[in-house]
Specification:
TIM Barrel, Nucleotidyltransferase, domain 5, globular, alpha/beta
Length: 234
């Protein structure tokens, strides 16, 4: 049975989108498109995802650039996707909006998103994400090697880090384009102190968008073997 998933790499002014059937037995075939980030382009994205019969969407984004994309998909893609013949049953804000409209609490389906369930509205409830301990446990459960990214943005790192290590944290990002030599040295020292693998990367999100160019941040080649050894438990 076909099951098509879309992946979206969200940049400030551009979206890179790929769609593939993940339940085929042969090699994956990919459909790729680029879209802008303005409202008209986001509606075009939703229409293209419907045309591609994508049933699920995953996004990778820096900062808050994902929010207007998510809101556009909730409004223009999800309701049609979930009512299409053969669609797998899901629930979400689209169902609530439809119910509010059918009961007469809002004038239109779209009005529900603009009033009662809009951001900062009386009925809006923010989604709850994983806390860092749950994230470490989940990565470990599925055979991964959890590493703490952007440690400089973590509030209360000095108190939190030993607790994360006790929970199974295996690495900490030390090599990063915005780190000064002093900051890199600080996190290398933390890695030695807690027996963590110092990790890093470019954080590349497209030219002119975020992070350094691919290959622009040096990470020692032995980092890969060290991460592999942690995955194997050796």
């Amino acid at each position: 049975m076909s099951y098509r998933i879309a992946g979206i790499d969200v940049h400030k002014k551009m979206l890179a989108v790929v769609v593939s059937d993940v339940e085929i037995e042969s090699d994956f075939q990919f459909e790729r498109r680029m879209f802008g980030s303005n409202p008209e382009q986001l509606r075009s994205l939703a229409a293209w995802l419907l045309e591609q019969e994508a049933e699920e969407v995953v996004m990778e984004s820096t900062a808050q650039y994902w929010k207007p994309v998510w809101e556009a998909l909730e409004r223009y893609w999800k309701p049609i996707c979930e009512t299409r013949e053969g669609a797998r049953r899901k629930s979400g804000t689209s169902h609530l909006a439809q119910a509010l409209f059918e009961k007469g609490y809002v004038r239109t389906y779209d009005d529900a998103f603009d009033t009662l369930i809009a951001k900062d509205s009386p009925a809006y409830v923010a989604r709850v994400g994983l806390d860092p301990f749950e994230a470490v446990a989940l990565v470990r459960k599925h055979g991964g090697v959890p590493s703490l990214a952007h440690p400089g943005t973590v509030v209360g790192l000095e108190e939190l880090l030993p607790k994360l290590v006790a929970a199974g944290l295996a690495g900490i990002e030390a090599y990063y384009g915005e780190h000064s030599p002093e900051i890199t040295a600080r996190y290398l020292a933390r890695a030695r102190e807690f027996d963590l693998v110092p990790t890093g990367g470019s954080d590349f999100h497209g030219r002119g968008a975020h992070g350094a160019d691919l290959g622009g941040v040096f990470v020692p080649p032995e980092t890969i073997e060290r991460l592999e050894s942690r995955r194997r438990g050796t």
